[in-house]
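Cross-check.
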Amino acid sequence: MATTTHRGITYTTSGSATITVDLDLPLQAGVDQDDTTWLTSYPGALTSFAARQSDGSNRMQPRMVCLQLGDLADAETLTLSGDCNVILTHISNANESVTADVSNNHHRHPLLSTAISGLVMTATCKRSDDGATGDTTDALVWLVVA
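Predicted model, tokenized:
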């Protein structure tokens, strides 16, 4: 199980995949999520202004995140926690070149499909239709989270 935390979001895999955060871009125009100058320069006596929803939970601003997942295994999950409430959408791609399998004259294409539910992404990785276990691939994953 690998864990990485970047800008308040913790990424945890259920297996041995490695995690690298390549990009974490706030989607609210004109705001750098790391700039908190407005908190200290506001004239008056506001104490850490934090807008809250009526249900008491802080909703996060949408962010686009790009992750490199190394050796992502079949049925492995990626779970997000921390400063996020939901994965809104995602795009994933197997990030490996095709190699020849000389033993049966077939090309072995790394196939990757992913599904999301709440804050969990589940991967399906297959190198071939031979039913072999232990299929893995490197993956490039784009997430829009809020």
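The helical segments are 37-41. The radius of gyration is 19 Å. Passed to J.P. for a second look.
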